[in-house]
Design brief:
The complex is a heterodimer of chains A (491) and B (490). By secondary structure, chain A is α/β, with parallel strands linked by helices. Chain A has an eleven-stranded mixed beta sheet, with helices on both faces. Chain A contains 16 helices and eleven strands. Chain A has a domain at 2-263 and 412-482: Amidase signature (AS) enzymes (Alpha-Beta Complex), CATH 3.90.1300. In chain A, helix 9 (280-295) links the parallel strand 7 and strand 8 (299-303). In chain A, helix 6 runs parallel beside helix 7 and helix 10 packs across helix 12 (358-370). Chain B starts with 10 loop residues before the first strand and ends with a helix. Chain B has 15 helices and 17 strands. The radius of gyration of chain B is 31 Å and the shape is elongated. Chain B folds into three domains: 11-306, no CATH class; 312-423, no CATH class; 431-489, Arc Repressor Mutant, subunit A, CATH 1.10.10. The chains are: A alpha/beta (491), B alpha+beta (490). The A-B interface holds A 82-83, 89, 91, 96, 99, 101-103, 105, 206-211, 213-215, 241-245, 321-322, 324-325, 327-329, 331, 333-335, 344, 348, 368, 371-373, 376, 380 and B 54, 57-66, 93, 95, 97-99, 102-105, 155, 157, 283, 285-287, 290-293.
């Protein structure tokens, strides 16, 4: 039944509507794929029974001529950062290993109400902190892609939404949810050869998503086509009164201009993204992307985003600062792991020492440091000022252009074990994705082609605030021009 | 009345006289039916952990949403203490670990409070009136409660209070005596109760007080202060201040130095003891809460609240003096709380205010005390008391008879008029009838009439008494006096 696992959301809907197959058959095909590719470790918790029940409900609706929406009956993977009612939600951490929420996050709830079929909870970096999905307490995720030419080393899927990206690339799920704080949707999408869309901050509710850095976290779709990303975002987005930072705007039809082309649009290429030591293949794919858009009638111009180089260091102040506070609630008192101690303080120490992994501890310590008396002004406050300068760069650029084109990541997927001893090397993965996060802008990664080694490389588009419509429009043009049809061998 | 002191008494030490400098931080629980950032209810005395939402228990992914009613209450309070309501304020996280603080941080307002710069006018006992500055008022979450005495080795946590809205009201270090601190707290509590923004019940913890105390020789720079935490009655505040001031003086005079620290007041021993020193003080790592947008208030919003503000005690007291012509002291008593003031105004409406005031402060308050009622729940309410006052005013009954009628009202619950009617207590104002009785009395007591006429003026009272007795007290006393005199004088 490999045909069923190759479908897009649009294709699945067409097949379900015409009765070519049932939602149950579709779900079963994906459950089988999930079982077959267990070695990828893409899931922390598999929920095949739930998936079949969801599918049966979908079939029952269709039998009555009803539909819950464009994703009714579509099997998806849910990043295990979303709290799902009655289904264990771990955030990839030992400290939440036993945690079963009595509530459903707003976004997963919308997908559920929209009839999607949940296959399971996808693996991720612990508390979404990582760029290779190697910090998960539940073990690393394997990228289904391997390099050509006899290099059989396991590749990382990127992170933090590594399980989601691997599941979609390996045809285990038609689509998956991700969350993006500094690149956690886009970078794994690039590494796994799929589409990953981070909407504007405030577009999707954060309620019920385990918080990493509240001012940056944003949920988004991970799919195999741009059109699917627009469709899935349609279901996920919308104002939520339970999230004070959720934007009180109506949700547009994200696919409104999907095939309108890019003729007459102005696309900016920021010169500051041409960083020292950037691999030639990254530069090449970037130029290729610009050429594709130009060939379709877009006006591609060089722009300047002068504060770009400060984005990454600033991000690694603000995100850990917020995280150090957000993760204070994991103290062993009310839920999750508790490791006893002789008094309260020792119980905290034991619980958090055992419950958190090394990367999470590192970020808690960085965050605690930058917020401390005497350092606050020099680090946190200064970072906030730089953040507003980064936003100003974009605001000025968008007076001139409709979207900005950059590479998604500075490399293709690297091998498991690489870059692991130096956190700064790891942090550099996010160098192209972090600025848009800092500015709260919508951005998307679209597969552009293959690296010299035969691994996928993504192209990255950044849009104006709340203008996902144009972002999707340009992404579609890139997707069509790239004609990316490669797939990981054996999937 | 004793002379009011221009300056409070100084404390005497071996090295001369000492002045106490006091600032108060009051935590006032906002009256609201839901918590500051969650929809959970806030009933006092509920079963442990029954007033807790997922937000209050800080479950993963839960987010705070500001309760607008609590903001209105804070604005109203800010206006009530003559403060400036800031159109921009912000919520910050105050980070520290404790078992009854589920989030690991308290959402508070650090850099940009909702209200700044107010004042409260006080009348300390035995001292001249004084104005006490209020530095700021900010809104914050309360923590839960740790219960340490239920288990030999473990503590219990009750999160009912977790997330409840508090107003922290910080005074300037303007107070110089326990009397001033007491007066400030009482006045603040009175204003909060008038505004309906805090019930002021210190015994239930809905109003709590931290005291900053330092001492200095008059005219010197401010001394090092200690903070005395969580003092839960106005009486204890005064005791804690006096103990703490004397402790600091003793320390300094014995060659020691006051260390800036947090201390706890022990009401059983009447002393303060060290809780944590400055070195152990938390680094709260304040930063703006990224889950909440800055709070921006429109002029319209503030003005709407201002327009709905009730009349406050000082204004009401002045109005009572002016409109009803009652003494300032009586007006002060009548405005002690909103309910008494309302009671008073219902009674005096269209009546002789002085007569009504005398009745309220006299027999009526005595009745409330004796029976354990207050003006809101006493069976004899304002209308019934008014009815009694009416009967005195229109001469239906005398003041003396009125006391009997009032007792009968308490016993039977009936209206004054009904009792007067039933018992035939209507005052005799018929001149002829009274004259007839006078004649009768004089006839019966011819010897005493002779004595009176022989110069024993004091017997006049005897005759009044006899006439009143003969009428069972119903004769109008003024009339009796008026008619008796010429007859006795012959």
């Amino acid at each position: 039944m490999s045909g069923l696992t190759d479908l897009t959301i649009a294709g699945a809907r067409a097949g379900l509507d015409s009765g070519d197959f049932s939602a149950r058959e579709l779900a079963q095909a994906h459950i089988d794929a999930m079982a077959q590719h267990k070695a990828l470790n893409a899931f922390i918790t598999e929920t095949p029974e739930r998936a079949l029940a969801d599918a049966d409900a979908s079939d029952a609706r269709r039998a009555k001529g009803e539909s819950a929406g464009p994703m009714d009956g579509v099997p998806i993977a849910m990043k295990d950062l979303f709290c799902t009612e009655g289904v264990r939600s771990t955030a990839g951490s030992h400290i939440l290993e036993p945690f079963v929420p009595p509530y459903e996050s707003t976004v997963s709830g919308k997908l559920k109400a929209g009839g999607s079929v949940m296959l399971g909870k996808a693996n991720l970096d612990e508390f979404a902190m990582g760029s290779a999905n190697i910090t998960s307490y539940f073990g690393p995720v394997t990228n289904p892609w391997v390099a050509g030419g006899g290099d059989n080393r396991q590749r990382v899927p990127g992170g933090s939404s590594g399980g989601s990206a691997a599941a979609v690339a390996a045809r285990i799920a038609i689509a998956a949810t991700g969350t993006d704080t500094g690149g956690s949707i886009r970078q794994p999408a690039s590494f796994c050869g799929i589409v990953g869309l981070k909407p504007t901050y405030g577009r999707c509710s954060r309620w019920g998503i385990v918080a990493f850095a509240s001012s940056l976290d944003q949920a988004g779709p991970m799919t195999r086509t741009v059109e699917d990303a627009a469709t899935m975002l349609q279901v996920m987005a919308g104002h939520d009164p339970k999230d004070s930072t959720s934007a009180p705007y109506d949700t547009p039809n994200f696919a409104e201009k999907l095939r309108a082309g890019v003729k007459g649009l102005k696309i900016g290429v920021p010169k500051e993204y041409r960083v020292d030591g950037m691999p030639a293949e990254i530069d090449r794919i970037w130029h290729q992307g610009a050429d594709w858009l130009r060939a379709q009638g877009a006006d591609v111009v060089e722009i300047s985003l002068p504060h770009t180089k400060y984005a990454l260091p600033t991000y690694y102040i603000i995100a850990p600062a917020e995280a150090s506070s957000n993760l204070a609630r994991y103290d062993g008192v009310r839920y999750g792991l508790r490791v006893p101690g002789k008094d309260l303080k020792e119980m905290y120490e034991n619980t958090r020492a055992e419950g958190f992994g090394a990367e999470v501890k590192r970020r808690i310590m960085i965050g605690t440091y930058v917020l401390s008396a005497g350092y606050y002004d020099a680090y946190y406050l200064k970072a906030q000022k730089v953040r507003s300068l980064i936003l100003r760069d974009f605001t000025q650029a968008f007076e001139q252009v409709d979207a900005i084109l950059t590479p998604t990541a500075p490399s293709a997927a690297f091998a498991l074990g690489e870059k692991q001893d130096d956190p700064v090397q790891m942090y550099l993965n996010d160098v192209f994705t972090v600025p848009a996060s800092m500015a709260g802008l919508p951005a998307i990664s679209v597969p552009g082609g293959l690296s010299d080694e035969g691994l996928p490389l993504g192209l990255h588009l950044i849009g104006k605030p709340f203008d996902e419509v144009t972002l999707v429009q340009v992404a579609q043009a890139l997707e069509e021009a790239a004609g990316f049809s490669a797939r990981p061998a054996g999937y | 009345m004793a002379e009011l002191l221009e300056h409070p008494k100084l404390l005497k030490g071996d090295s001369g006289e000492w002045e106490i400098v006091i600032g108060l931080e009051v935590h006032a629980q906002v009256i609201s039916n839901a918590k500051l950032f969650s929809g959970a209810p806030v009933a006092f005395g509920a079963e442990p952990n029954t007033q807790v939402s997922l937000v209050d228990a800080a479950f993963p992914g839960m987010l705070p949403v500001l309760n607008e009613h609590c903001v209105e209450q804070a604005v109203l309070t800010g206006l009530g203490i003559n403060g400036t309501v800031n159109k921009y304020s912000r919520f910050d996280r105050k980070n520290y670990f404790y078992a009854d603080l589920p989030q690991g941080y308290q959402i508070s307002q650090f850099e940009h409070p909702i209200v700044t710069g107010g004042y409260i006018d006080i009348e300390p006992e035995g001292e001249v009136p004084k104005r006490i500055g209020v530095t700021r008022l900010h809104v914050e979450q309360d923590a839960g409660k740790s219960i340490h005495d239920q288990h030999p080795t473990q503590s219990y946590i009750d999160l009912n209070r977790s997330g409840t809205a508090l107003m922290e009201i910080v005074s300037e270090p303007d107070m110089r005596s326990g009397e001033q601190a007491t007066a400030y707290l009482s006045k603040l509590r009175q204003v909060l109760r008038y505004l309906g923004t805090c019930d002021g019940n210190m015994d239930q913890g809905s109003m709590r007080c931290d005291i900053n105390v330092s001492v200095r020789h008059p005219g010197d720079e401010l001394g090092t202060r200690c903070e005395v935490k969580n003092v839960n009655s106005i009486r204890f505040v005064r005791q804690a201040i006096e103990y703490e001031a004397r402790r600091q003086i003793r320390l300094i005079e014995n060659g020691g130095e006051v260390v800036q620290e947090t201390r706890l007041y022990d009401p059983n021993k009447g002393e303060t003891r060290s809780m944590r020193s400055k070195e152990d003080a938390h680094d709260y790592r304040y930063f703006p809460d990224p889950d909440l947008l800055p709070l921006r208030l429109e002029d319209e919003f503030i003005e709407r609240i201002r327009a709905g503000m009730p009349e406050l005690p000082d204004a009401k007291r002045a109005r009572f003096v002016k409109d009803y012509g009652i003494a300032d002291y009586d007006a002060w008593v009548m405005t002690a709380d909103q309910a008494t003031a309302d009671f008073f105004e219902t009674v005096v409406k269209g009546r002789d205010a002085k007569l009504a005031t005398n009745w309220i402060t006299g027999d009526y308050f005595a009745y409330l005390n004796r029976e354990g009622f207050d003006v809101t729940n006493a069976p004899i309410g304002a209308e019934k008391l008014g009815g009694l006052v009416d009967l005195i005013s229109d001469n239906t009954i005398s003041g003396r008879i009125a006391k009997d009628v009032f007792e009968a009202m308490i016993e039977s619950g009936k209206d004054a008029a009904a009792i007067v009617e039933e018992k035939g207590l209507v005052q005799i104002t018929d001149t002829g009838a009274i004259e007839a009785i006078i004649d009768e009395v004089m006839a019966k007591n011819a010897d005493k009439v002779a004595d009176y006429r022989g110069g024993k003026d004091k017997l006049f009272g005897f005759f009044v008494g006899q006439v009143m007795k003969a009428t069972q007290g119903k004769a109008n006393p003024a009339l009796v006096n008026q008619l008796l005199k010429p007859k006795l004088d012959g």
